[in-house]
Design brief:
The structure is a single chain. The chain has an eight-stranded parallel sheet with strand order 1-8-7-6-5-4-3-2. Helix 2 links the parallel strand 2 and strand 3. By secondary structure, it is of the alpha/beta class. It is built from eight helices and eight strands. The longest helix is centred in the last third of the chain and has 15 residues. Helices cover about 35% and strands about 20% of the residues. The protein has a single domain, classed as TIM Barrel. Bound molecules: D-xylitol-5-phosphate and zinc ion.
Length: about 220
């Protein structure tokens, strides 16, 4: 099946002093999703942004706000991120012993739900949530920072998840996040990914380069 590759720039690599303008710029440059990395200094070492910032930047684009929560515990914050204007809320399987319940909560708020797997996490747990999720995120780096090197062993994981998604017959995004550049983008798509998160590779060179960067990542 031929899938269209969508690009989700991670705003972690944007100029935080001009976040609204940066989001408008990647929107105009052809971004499909706006990927927002939320880190808590607990589940992952870094601290980034919270729901107040998501709310503040929301008016700068009508595109899908794809909010990647690297936080634990997570349940108490889901409603705030939903109210802030998230369209997709992705949680980490490792961040809660109750990912089924968390996904139910996200769906009850009429948001799309994603589940993310760290590089060291196996895919078996997907069996029990395949009927609920709208997105599966394969981390191709250990979460916590932008600018890391793509972990090649995750390509096999992407292939196996692609098969599971196709067998399910459901419309589920297969997203890859971490170390995506002009070379690794092709590998991930070949393995079956259809949404590529890219921080460094989108924002390199400043606003005049965003459109060309996004086109190259899409393989155009
Ligand atoms: C990593 C984040 C990623 C990251 C991607 O924890 O989830 O979204 O910012 O950055 P690059 O594309 O620079 O690897
Ligand atoms: Zn991310």
């Amino acid at each position: 099946m031929q899938r269209e590759t969508r690009i989700a720039p991670s705003i972690l690599s944007a100029d935080f002093a001009r976040l609204g303008e940066e989001i408008a710029a990647i929107d105009a440059a052809g971004a499909d999703y706006i990927h927002v990395d939320v880190m808590d200094g607990h589940f992952v070492p870094a601290i980034t942004i919270g729901p107040a910032v998501v709310k503040a930047i929301r008016p700068f684009s009508k595109k899908t706000f794809d909010v990647h929560l690297m936080i634990s515990p997570v349940d108490n914050y889901i409603r705030e991120f939903a109210d802030a204007g998230s369209d997709i809320i992705t949680i980490h399987a490792e961040a809660t012993p109750h990912c089924h319940r968390t996904i139910q909560l996200i769906k009850s708020l009429d948001k799309k739900a994603g589940i993310s797997l760290n590089p060291g996490t196996s895919i078996e747990l997907l069996d029990n949530v395949m009927d609920m999720v709208d997105l599966i995120l394969v981390m191709s780096v250990n979460p916590g920072f932008g600018g890391q090197k793509f972990i090649v062993s995750q390509l096999e994981k992407i292939r196996r998840i692609r098969q599971r998604i196709d067998n399910s017959g459901r419309d589920i995004d297969l997203q890859v996040d971490g170390g995506i550049n002009m070379e690794t983008a092709g590998w991930a798509v070949e393995a079956g990914a259809d949404v590529l998160v890219a921080g460094t590779a989108t924002f390199t060179g400043g606003p005049s380069q965003y459109e060309i960067n996004i086109q190259k990542l899409r393989g155009e």
